[in-house]
């Protein structure tokens, strides 16, 4: 099962790499605080890297002396504000769905995204993943990006650092185990960020992603209201927040069937953000 899944994932990545030139993903990211991601590039191998090795006959060469370590965690800058929108040319928007996966709603949203060949981001809770692993496998197979939304959806601002780390780390672990990759994006429940969340997110290799337009579907305001919020808020770079769990989300499911084709007809390219290459 796991092996098949990883194979599928790899196939997707290869297919994605081939298509990247044409469709591409959104480029640079705009942070609310104006800070840019600064990946620390691994030192290049080559002549300088080898200079240190003196030609003494029986010197043991360190195993790490042949280039950058393969699995070195990428150092991320600790932000002070989450990312609120994406930059880049054209009419690009990002769709995000929080709090799932949920077998009652997530499959319908995935069906609609598949119908229009659109990729989205799903910020999942670890405790929901354990009972619905097949939905994460489907997200991976269909090219969606899975982000970390903690294990139990707590208010992080009321917790100590150790508790926050546990919420985040367990979730990254179950995502990696099921989806095939560790998440590169984190979203704080309720949009309640604190310093520890930014620091731990960076430590765990995740950028903090917030949103620009809240559909307010969590208030269950009626399908038409949700549609109006998305269509009225549409603009280049906008990140849309919806929910595929955490309550009755049938309005969300119905609304996306209306607003998604509207956005596409309006010339929007629904995309997922790429991380700045190292
Ligand atoms: Zn949430």
Q: In words, what does this structure look like?
A:
The protein is an alpha/beta fold. The protein has a domain at 84-271: Alpha-Beta Barrel (TIM Barrel), CATH 3.20.20. The protein is built from nine helices and ten strands. The strands form three sheets. Strands 3, 4, 5, 8, 9 and 10 form a six-stranded parallel β-sheet that branches. It is globular and about 45 Å long. Zinc ion is lined by residues 98-99, 149, 153, 189. Residues 98-99, 149, 153, 189 line the site of zinc ion (ZN). Keywords: Hydrolase, Metal-binding, Signal. This is Polysaccharide deacetylase family protein.
Radius of gyration: 20 Å
Could you name the ranges where pLDDT drops below 50 across 5 or more consecutive residues? 13-25, 31-57
| CATH topology tier name of the domain at 84-271 | TIM Barrel
Ligand set: zinc ion
Q: CATH-wise, what's the superfamily of the domain at 84-271? A: Glycoside hydrolase/deacetylase
> What is the terminal separation in angstroms?
32 Å
Indicate the mean pLDDT.
83
Biggest sheet features: 6 strands, parallel
CATH class bucket of the domain at 84-271: Alpha Beta
Tell me what the CATH architecture of the domain at 84-271 is.
Alpha-Beta Barrel
In DSSP terms (H or I, runs of 4 or more residues), the helix count works out at 9
Structural class: alpha/beta
How would you briefly describe this protein structure?
The chain has helices spanning 2-20, 47-51, 106-115, 126-129, 133-141, 161-179, 195-203, 223-233, 250-265; strands at residues 29-31, 83-86, 92-98, 121-124, 145-148, 185-186, 207-208, 213-214, 239-243, 269-271. It is an alpha/beta fold. Strands 3, 4, 5, 8, 9 and 10 form a 6-stranded parallel β-sheet that branches. Strands 1-2 form a two-stranded antiparallel sheet.
């Amino acid at each position: 099962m796991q092996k098949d899944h990883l194979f599928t994932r790899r196939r997707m990545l290869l297919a994605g790499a081939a298509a990247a030139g044409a469709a591409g993903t959104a480029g640079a990211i705009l942070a609310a605080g104006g800070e840019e991601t600064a990946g620390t590039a691994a030192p290049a191998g080559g002549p300088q890297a080898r200079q240190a090795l003196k030609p003494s006959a029986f010197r043991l060469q360190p195993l790490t002396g042949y280039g950058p370590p393969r699995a070195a965690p990428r150092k991320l800058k600790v932000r002070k504000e989450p990312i609120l929108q994406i930059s880049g040319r054209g009419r690009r928007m990002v769709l995000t769905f929080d709090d799932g996966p949920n077998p009652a709603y997530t499959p319908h949203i995935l069906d609609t995204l598949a119908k229009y060949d659109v990729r989205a981001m799903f910020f999942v809770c670890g405790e929901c993943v354990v009972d619905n692993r097949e939905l994460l496998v489907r997200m991976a197979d269909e090219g969606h990006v899975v982000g970390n939304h903690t294990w139990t959806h707590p208010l992080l601002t009321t917790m100590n650092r150790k508790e926050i780390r546990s919420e985040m780390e367990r979730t990254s672990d179950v995502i990696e185990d099921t989806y095939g990759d560790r998440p590169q994006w984190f979203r704080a429940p309720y949009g309640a960020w604190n310093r520890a969340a930014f620091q731990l997110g960076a430590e765990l290799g995740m950028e903090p992603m917030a949103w620009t337009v809240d559909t307010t579907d969590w208030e269950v305001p009626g399908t038409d209201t949700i549609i109006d919020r998305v269509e009225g808020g549409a603009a280049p770079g906008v990140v849309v927040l919806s929910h595929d769990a955490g309550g009755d989300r049938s309005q969300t499911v119905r609304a996306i069937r209306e607003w998604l084709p509207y956005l596409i007809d309006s010339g929007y390219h629904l995309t997922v953000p790429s991380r700045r290459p190292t």
